[in-house]
Amino acid sequence: MEMEESFDAEGSFDDASCLSPQSPGSTSPARRQNKEKEIKETKITINCVTFPVPTSAPEQQLLKPSEWSYCDYFWADKRDPQGASVPGFEVLLQKQLKGKQMQKEMAEFIRERIKIEEEYAKNLSKLSMFPMAAQEEGTLGEAWAQLKKSLADEAEVHLKFSSKLQSEVEKPLLTFRGDNFKKDMKKYDHHIADLRKQLVSRYAAVEKARKALADRQKDLEVKTQQLEIKLSNKTEEDIKKARRKSTQAGDDLMRCVDLYNQAQSKWFEEMVTTSLELERLEVERVETIQQLLRQYTTLRHETDMFNQSTMEPVDQLLQSVDPAKDRELWVKEHKTGDLRPVDMDI
Length: 346
Fold this sequence. Notes:
Layout: H1 2-9, H2 29-42, E1 43-46, E2 49-52, H3 70-73, E3 78-79, E4 85-86, H4 88-128, H5 138-175, H6 180-228, H7 236-303, H8 308-319, H9 323-334
């Protein structure tokens, strides 16, 4: 109960029925109690997922050590600001959807830059045609005329820059991961959610079978005691019948636990596979946007070689983009737990 209360204080579960892992009983109450105590000291079930107790279980090895991989840090649930329980997989999914939104906002930002460049080019071209000081003569007049012409040349450079921004940066940002992306994320979400629901259902069946076994064992013990002290007319046949029912209840519990472990194993495998796919998609997103932003800086350098100093900080930061480091920082801030599920013990 101390362990359960500590998990409750951290907001790691919301279903009280899933908090106390128990062992299938035996015909010996003392043996059964010792077994249940032993399991409670090493296993705990939170939101119908069975975990080892951190203080008593051997340290688990990460699936991908030193990589801050998604498949190692999102097994437990967490609380949102409203107090609702959020599965670790949902945290990963929201990261993908947030990335899609960030991509859209970056494209909108580039569109605003394009508008500025187009307006700037238009004003430069207009200014270059002003007749001011057109009557200046001699070499000074030639210099003045060349200065005005340079405005038109500069306007053309900025116009080409805006056109390249549209085709080489904005458009790729808009088309990268189209409308089907959110649909794909929903498929992942529904698939993992269905497996989690099945796990909850299997856990409920385990608890039901556990209660049925306890009832059968209690009935057997009562009948046995009554027979021994001659307080009942129950015969040996009645005792055998009660014993058969108790044995059947034990078999049913073992079957339910086996089905639960199968469901948890399937959920575990799909969580690993899908989280690694989401990790791959995030690396792809970061690298793609990194490449597009590098193209932006290349075009900017071509447009104004005299203004390189203003772009050098951006260039230096882009050189430092590292998907692995991004993932490390994000996982450190959002991780929900690095203990993976383990099989329930009988």
